[in-house]
Structure formats: C-alpha cells, structure tokens
Amino acid sequence: MEKLLSSLRINVPKSVYLKDPESSDLGKRIIEQSITLIDEMGFEAFTFKKLGEAIGSNESSIYRYFENKHKLLIYLSSWYWSWIEYQLVIATFSLNEAELKLEKAIEIVAREVKKDNTFTYVDEVALNRIMINENSKSFLTKQVDFENKEGHFESYKRLVNRLQEMISAVSPEYRYAKSLASTVLDTALHQHFLGNHFNSLTNCTKESPVIFLTELVRKTIS
C-alpha cells in the first residue's frame, strides 16, 4: 500500500509500448489526445495521422512510442485497469471486515467514473467511455495468446486476482472466485454499455450496476 501511494504512478506493462509515454511531454500529449479522439470518433476511425495533427507533431513521432494503434488501445486499457486497482486499494485499505472490503471493491469497479485530478493528462471519464465501448477490441484478436504471453494484459489480470482474493476472504469454500471476479469486471462495463445503447435490455441505470453486482455476488457466494 505504501509503495502504491508513494509513487502516484499508474504502472502499465512495458511490453505494450516502445517508449514510455509518461517519460516526456510529447508522450503525455499522445495519451491525452488519443483519449479525446477515440472517445469522439471511435477506434475504427482513429488513426495516428489524425492523432499527429491533433498534437501538432509528425505521425512518425507517435510510432516511436507505439508500434500501432492496437498497442495504444492496450496501453489505454491497461492504464484504466491499473487506475481502478489504485482506487480500489486506497478505498479498502482501512477497512477491516472482509464483507465491507468486497462491497467497496465492487463499488469502485462498477460505479460511474468521476474525474481524478491527480493525473492531469488523462481524462478518466472519457477513458471510461472508451473502455465501455472499445475495450473488447484490445483482446478479441488472433494475436491475443501471444500478447498474453508477452504480458500485455497484466493490469487486468492483477485486478481480477485482487478481487478474487477478496471474494475468497468472504467465502473460502466458494470454488469459482476467480471466474466470479472476472465476471464482475466485465459485467460492470457491459451493463453501462447496455444502459447507454440498449436500455431496454437492462434494469440498470448509471448508478445501479453497483447495486446489481453487489447483490449478485452476495447471493452467489452465500
């Protein structure tokens, strides 16, 4: 916990990027503007050429940081999951009861995202919209097994494991804690997607995925 709080840095797997975008002002502008553009136009329409125009730099300068836009999307996804983990650790650190820790963790991963002024070059609200709409494109590819071996999805897997440990702390006899943990993370995004685009298919409003998932987990492991 102390190490996490002392650095105030969101750790993204080094295998995702060629040069750490947090190491320079240009890199931070790449992240900032890529979030804005992908949020506005969608991942399919987004290109490094358009990003270069937005940041006032040559397209080639972006390729010094990321091999392609797919790797950039994985970076953004990894940053988001690491940021959620950061929020979760802070929110649950002082809680002693396992049930309260788990309920707070579910709230963190499923609630409507608010702006975090700690990281000025990242619009977490816009990034959350990208995760809701585009996250699956980061791993539903033919390269997913290779990229997994390379460590591209460590941020997501680390958060799943952390949530799984909290579930097991409440119900040690429950055999599917890891499956339930990954279901909670994916369902949180999916329920927000349904609420935004197919609201006839969900009972959840922007706030109620937290209530839904808390009740789901409580009844599943009881």
Descriptive notes:
- Residues 1-7 have low confidence and may be disordered.
- The chain has helices at 2-7, 25-41, 48-55, 59-62, 69-92, 98-110, 124-134, 144-149, 154-170, 177-197, 209-221.
- It has 222 residues and is an all-alpha fold.
- The two termini are 29 Å apart.
- It has one domain: Tetracycline Repressor, domain 2, CATH 1.10.357.10.
What distinguishing features does this structure have?
222 residues; mainly alpha; Tetracycline Repressor, domain 2
In CATH terms, what is the architecture? Orthogonal Bundle
Query: Count of helical segments?
Result: 11
- Give the strand content: under 5%
The domain count comes to 1
Instruction: Spell out the CATH superfamily.
Output: Tetracycline Repressor, domain 2
Q: Provide the gyration radius in Å.
A: 18 Å
- Distance between the amino and carboxyl termini: 29 Å
CATH class: Mainly Alpha
Unreliable runs, pLDDT <50, ≥5 residues? 1-7
The CATH topology annotation reads as: Tetracycline Repressor, domain 2
SSE topology string: HHHHHHHHHHH
Overall mean pLDDT stands at 94
Question: Percent of residues in helical segments?
Answer: 55-70%
Shape: globular
Q: Largest beta sheet, briefly?
A: none
Task: Put the structure in a nutshell.
This protein has a single domain (2-221), classed as Tetracycline Repressor, domain 2 (Orthogonal Bundle). It is built from eleven helices and no strands. The chain has helices spanning 2-7, 25-41, 48-55, 59-62, 69-92, 98-110, 124-134, 144-149, 154-170, 177-197, 209-221.
